[in-house]
Amino acid sequence: MLQTSEDIRLLNETINHKAGFVTRINEELSKVIVGQHGMVERLMIGLLSNGHVLLEGVPGLAKTLSIRSLSQCIDTKFSRIQFTPDLLPADVIGTMIYNQVKNEFVVRKGPIFSNFILADEINRAPAKVQSALLEAMQEKQVTIGDTTYKLEAPFLVLATQNPIEQEGTYPLPEAQVDRFMLKVIVGYPTKSEEQLIIRQNTLGMTAPTINAVASTSEIMEAKELVRQIYMDEKVEQYILNIVFATRFPGQYNLPKLISLIGFGGSPRASINLALAAKAYAFFK
Q: For labeling, which of 29, 70, 108, 118 is most exposed (least CB within 10 Å)?
C-alpha cells in the first residue's frame, strides 16, 4: 500500500508516543547489565520484529542474565530450558500422562508454553529435541499426541551457545539456524566496563530488582507499528543486492567469495533484513 507524506507523519507521531517503553526497558536493563549495548539492541530488534535470536559467546559475558532481565522487564511468561545431551522432546514441549482418577490420558504442557524461552546452551541437545523446538520456532505451535496447540503471542526463542567447547555438543541443523533472525556474537567488555562489573559484584550489595516496565499489549502494538514503517524502494534494492550477492557473488564483483559460500541467503533473509531495519528505525 502506497503511503503518503501525511500517512508517514502521522505514523511517526504515533511511534513517538508508543515507543516510550523502549527507554524504560533500557533503563531497567542498565541496572544489571554493564555495557553490551550491541547485544541489548539486537535483543530488542528480535523482540519488535518477532524474530528469534541466537547469542554466541564464551561463558561469563552475561548472555543468560541479559535474556532473563529482558523478560523481567516485560509482563510476560518466561521459561528457561537448560539443554543437555540427555534432554528429551517431552522435556521441552510436554507429553501425555495417564490420570488414574479420570481413567484417561491428559496433556501436561512443557516449558515451551511461555512467551520468552531461554534455550541455554542450545547446541548441547540431540537432533530429536532440536526438531521439536524447530516446529515451535517456525510454526508457533507444538504437537502433543494427536493435538496441535498454538503458542501464545508474543513467542520468542532467545538461545545461547558456547563456541569454545565442542565436547558433548551437537551442531545446530542448518534448517534450525535459518529460523534464527539474528546471530549475535557477544564480545568482551571494555576495561572500564569490567572495572565497574568487579565493583558491582564484590561490594556485597543486594542485586538490583528488575521491574516490569512494559506490558504485553505495548509489545504487540509496537510490533504492528514496526510493520507499518515506510521503507523506501532504494532500501529494498539495497537489501536485495546484499542477499543476491550471497547467491551469485561473481555477478557482484566478489569472485573471492565464490568458493566460500555453499548456499546463499533464502527469501527469509530478505524479509528479516527488512524487518530488522524497520525495528531499528522504530526504537531510534
A: 108
